Amino acid sequence: MTPFLSAADYFAAKLAYETDPTDLAADRASGSAPLVIDTRSAASWSQGRIPGAVHIPNSELEARIGGFASTMDAAIVVYCWGPGCNGSTRGALILASMGYTNVRELIGGFEYWAREGFATVSDDGRGRRAPDPLTAPLPPSA
What distance lies between CA 22 and its chain's CA centroid? Predict the structure, then answer.
């Protein structure tokens, strides 16, 4: 059976539709931040989220996205809990099916964002945990 895509085409497509926490943080720091959508439950949102993210569970995405993304080519990043969660994949599929053309998933979701030591916010306030050496980028060696 011949694959639909070559390996190179598959990996190029994968990179076009994903971003990682470090790249998202760099985009935000440069002022070119995409709209960041948290697709998780209200309870998960309350426990912790990426600052500035918008909470739109997948069940509400079609009805509410127009209030946040005014054009179909708006840069959007969706995330869910972590690498074992496919809520962001479902959210990205909903948006792409609606015609949004610049949608990406956050690799590792909120879990990797927090584990890499980036700022988080919860209903109790802002926080930041120490970077996990297994997920966070290492500083350049001296």
Answer: 11
Residue 18 makes CB contacts below 8 A (sequence gap 6+) with 104, 105, 106, 107
Q: Alpha-carbon distance 129 to 116, whole Å?
A: 8
Contact criterion met (CB below 8 Å) for 49 and 120: yes
d(CA 4, CA 9): 9
The pLDDT profile of the chain, 142 residues, written as one tens digit per residue, is: 566 789 899 899 889 999 999 999 999 999 989 999 999 999 999 999 999 999 999 999 999 999 999 899 999 999 999 988 899 999 999 999 999 999 999 999 999 999 999 999 999 999 988 888 877 666 555 4
